[in-house]
Amino acid sequence: MRVLSGVQPSGKIHLGNYFGAMKHHIELQKEHQAFYFIADYHALTTLNDANQLRENILDVAMDYLALGINPEKTVFFKQSDVPQVMELAWILTTITPMGLLERCHSYKDKIANGISPNHGIFAYPVLMAADILIYNSQLVPVGKDQKQHIEVTRDLAMKFNNAYNEEVFTVPEEYIMEQYAVVPGIDGRKMSKSYGNTIDIFADKSSLKKKVMSIVTDCTPLEDPKDPSSCNVFALYSLFASKDEKSEMEDMYRKGGFGYGTAKKMLLEKINAHFEPYRQKRAEMQKDISNVKDILFEGAVKAQIIAQETIEKVRSVVGVTL
Ligand code: ADP
Ligand code: TRP
Questions:
Q1: What is the distance in A from the centroid of ligand 1 to the CA of 291?
Q2: What letters, b where the CB count within 10 A reaches 16 and e where it falls short, cover 112-144?
Q3: Are 53 and 40 within 8 A, CB to CB?
Q4: Would you say the CB of residue 6 lies under 6 angstroms from ligand 2?
Q5: Does residue 97 have a pLDDT over 90?
Q6: Domains of the chain and CATH, by start
Q7: pLDDT digits (tens, 9 = 90+) for 99-158
Q8: How far does residue 192's CA lie from ligand 1's centre (Å)?
Q9: Which atom of ligand 2 is nearest to the CA of 143?
Q10: Residues 23, 159, 193, 281: which is the catalytic one?
Q11: Any ligand 2 atom below 6 A from CB of 140
């Protein structure tokens, strides 16, 4: 199956991004032909700071590569390096009903959160549809928040195929990653950059320690029994622990005499042990940024071959090729 997903370059990545999305992207590349890209044109709809955008793009590229994207097997690239996508996005806008976009939650949410409604934010799902359709993607692993955008993509693919009476586009399946746990932040709400409650996976050790030690818990005294199922520290520990380690910690909670401070230290050890090899790899990569740029460039060359085939077919089908 051809799997495709995009990630916005929006800053430092956290445990929620890792366990909710990136880890699964990395696993999926083993069994499938994966296309993963950095959605820089999507990021432009909300970020108008060139230096910040450049930094974010390289950051997320290094994060993904350090965590295990294999550029030999997976096509890993930057959205803006495949300009055919923009051309397809325009052609798709011409068959996109206004109402379809007006109904999109993410557009309405952004407006409700005070982001001024530029046309890019409104047309965002059409560009996303172009991203997906141009590579004949079959499976699109995304978080729940993106589900509606995949539905828009499916609608547009069918609408286009019908309008021109030709099976130009593969109608993709959504692959919602909601079966994976929602990772809680240090305040117990969903971990999210917008709540400022994240534990960033490539943070330096001392700020990581500070974050872990500040995870909110209830005030059950040390000697009393505690309920692991309602504890943020335990929920985070469970993401890393084996079955046996989990039940050992559960027993300690229930017995009493086990403090949250100790649980936090055990969690910190787990985080450090898990991410240490990735940190080293990332630090190496940071020393050779030009290699990271080369990897993205080589990925774009591979992506362009397929994008070009699709766009030529589309141009011909809509009648602009004479
Ligand atoms: P943020 O909320 O920090 O801005 P994004 O919306 O950029 O994060 O999320 C990028 C990806 O990470 C999405 O696919 C999303 O489903 C996943 N993700 C983000 N936060 C969490 C979380 N707390 N638990 C599980 N998955 C998450
Ligand atoms: N909109 C997605 C997000 O914010 C990123 C994205 C852009 C994407 N194009 C895509 C995801 C195509 C999957 C497929 O997370």
A1: 28
A2: eeeeeeeeebbbbbbbbbbbbbbbbbbbbbbbe
A3: yes
A4: yes
A5: yes
A6: 2-183+289-318 (3.40.50.620), 203-283 (1.10.240.10)
A7: 999 999 988 888 888 888 899 999 999 999 999 999 999 999 988 888 899 999 999 999
A8: 6
A9: 15
A10: 193
A11: yes
